[in-house]
Amino acid sequence: MMRDAGRRMSRFTFVIVVLCMTVLCPPVVWAEGFPPSISKSVIDTQNLLKVDEKKEFTKVAADLAQTYKLLIITDPKPLTLTQYAQQLPSKFTINDTTMVIVVSFNDKKIAAVSGKYFTERGITEEVVTRKADNFFTPYAKQGAVMKGVLSFVQSIDTDVKDAKPTEIVAQTAAANAPQNVEAFPVWLLAGLALVAVFGIGLIIAFTLRKRTLKEIDETDEWRIRTSEQLNLFTVDPSWKKEPGRIKEKYLAILTSLDDLKKDAIVDVELILADAEEMASQFRFRRSRDILTEARGKLMHIESDLEKLHIRLENLKETLQDVSSFKEETNDMRQKVERRFSELKIQYNVSFHTLKERLNQLDRETGEIKESEEKGDFHVARDLLQQVRDNLIEMSEELEKMPLIRQAIMKDIDQEIRQLDEDAKEMVTGGYTSGEEFFLARLIKIRGKAEILPQLFEEGKIEETEEQIGKVREDIEAVYQTMEEIVTSRHRYRQYMTELPHYVMVLRQDEQFLAEELEDLAQRYQVEEGEAFRYYQQIPVLVADAEDALEQIAAAEVPEAYERHSQMLTQVAERVTEIMERRELIMKELNEFRKGETAALAEVKDLRASVARVEQQLKRLYLPAIPSYVADSLHHCRQAIASVEGALAESPLNIQKAEMLLKQAKGQVENALEQAAEMVRDVRETEDKVQRTNRFRRKDPEIGKLLKASETAFRAVRYEEASELAAQAYDLAVERYGLD
């Protein structure tokens, strides 16, 4: 029984240990990764915050006595945010005066871990949780995460400044106290239990009361700060000197400000008094609900205050724009009217359209005054801006009127007369068959030009400009037509000159390709390709070109151009296109014969190399040529002849020819090397014999070697002769110091 109990106790202990390890050591592997460093004031690896929000936190944290750092993460799951924050000290070094604030961006939750300095001043985990509920959560629910963080930090900093370091007292209880064998009476145990429960209830109640009162104090501090912000909101006293409608706008803003001061702030103060009364009555849930209502009102007050700031700035900006636009439009109106009067006198016309536009400005000015009287200053500003734009447009039109007048009275007329002269010159030069071709266009252009003076006198400046542009476009179109006619005539003459030459070239190509393609078909087994298509098109194209030239030659010159211009152009373009392909065809033919041409060139080089060596050997006037050299040169000529025979076969087997050519090149290289070695032996023998000959009689051994070398030389053993001559030379150097 004892052994089984021990086993059950062991199993129970093991389960407890596993559960504790599971609770105390959560699976960090699955949690969001930790940042590489927390040296910066804001750690946001995923850029969840805006740049302005990061700068704002950095600025606020820099002004505080302690160090505050903000870590932004997306989601700590599967950990809780508190567990994630509690693991930071094991990952990074956190100083005593440093607090790291962790914000889960998706969950809108906040947690903090800090050094010993904060703990000694009462900033415990419960305080952090309460601060988060009171100062961060209301803002986070509305999407203002950074505003909630700043409010949380300021509240923590205030508590740290007001608190004194706590003394940590270790309390020890007496252990192993002697137990009395006699049992206590039941009534005494029940009484002690009731006293303990009552004491614990009192402790909990007063703890909750203290916490609630602290929250009330924090909310009251928030109210005081908001009240100070309301008192700082001021308006320049000069508004009292403004006209009635403007004064009403300022009064409305000040009235709203007074409502916030007198009503909203007072309401919050009364609500906090109710919350404090509920806390005194130990009605903590009701007190918290009232505190939530107070915080909501404070947030609305701050929002309304921000809106008042915006209203004031917008009003100032609108009034400033209205004032500047009025001054600018008055000056521009005077300049426009002055210039308008000058032009009326100068040209002696009414310009009634422009006059009507000026009258329209008077009506718009009346609407502006009416809007100002109603207090619609935004509408007045928009109307003033519209009037200013219209005046700018009219001023630009008035400045352009002298140029437009000159274009109507002088430039357009000259351009039309010049066009008429050029058209007559085209007819005279034979480029067209009659004047009717240009006459209809000239009549249309003159009709458009006759409308221009009337439009100008009516003051329709924009329409006049458009009409002048249309007249000039029509003139330019006629000139473009003339240019096309002249270009076409020149091209016609060019084709008449070049086409006979092209026909002759095509006939030559036809003769050349007939033989070349037949050879390709027989020797290379090639019967298709660009060259074959080119050859097939030549007869048809030559026939069409000759037919066109014959028809043109049989007609008169003007009639030939009118009747056959298009036909000649089409034929010439076809001929030009096929001539552009001619170079490609020749390249294709060369590509077909590329292997054969290269092989023939190499065969020619090999034969020249063999002939050059034979001539060199003849010039040496040797007793005879060694058989191995003569046989090698003979084999080279046979190999070269076999390559030439393979290249002359029909059909051509280029692979066979290339293989034979490779063998021939090897034989030629071997023969050339043997001939070079033989020539070298001959020249060395002659040189050393000549330089050693004077010691022949003086030294019998040298004379014997020289005689043996001469005998070997006459016997066509040039290598042996070279070696004997070298031995004689070496003895002469050794014995007589021969240089």
Structure characterization notes:
This protein is mostly helical. Helix 6 (125-141) packs antiparallel against helix 7. Strands 1-2-3-4 form a four-stranded mixed sheet. Strand 1 (42-43), helix 2 and strand 2 form a beta-alpha-beta unit. It contains 22 helices and four strands. It is flat and about 150 Å long. Helices cover 78% and strands 3% of the residues. The protein folds into five domains: 32-165, Diaminopimelate Epimerase, Chain A, domain 1 (Roll); 225-321; 325-398, no CATH class; 413-494; 594-736.
In short:
One of its GO terms (biological process) is septin ring assembly. This protein has helices spanning 2-24, 51-62, 81-86, 88-91, 116-120, 125-141, 145-162, 186-232, 244-280, 284-347, 352-374, 377-428, 436-458, 461-524, 530-553, 557-580, 582-592, 594-619, 627-647, 654-692, 700-714, 718-736; strands at residues 42-43, 67-73, 98-104, 109-114. It is an all-alpha fold and 739 residues long.
Q: Characteristics of this structure?
A:
single chain; 739 residues; mainly alpha; Diaminopimelate Epimerase, Chain A, domain 1; 5 domains; four-stranded mixed beta sheet; 78% helix; disordered N terminus; EzrA; cell division; Septation ring formation regulator EzrA; membrane; cell cycle
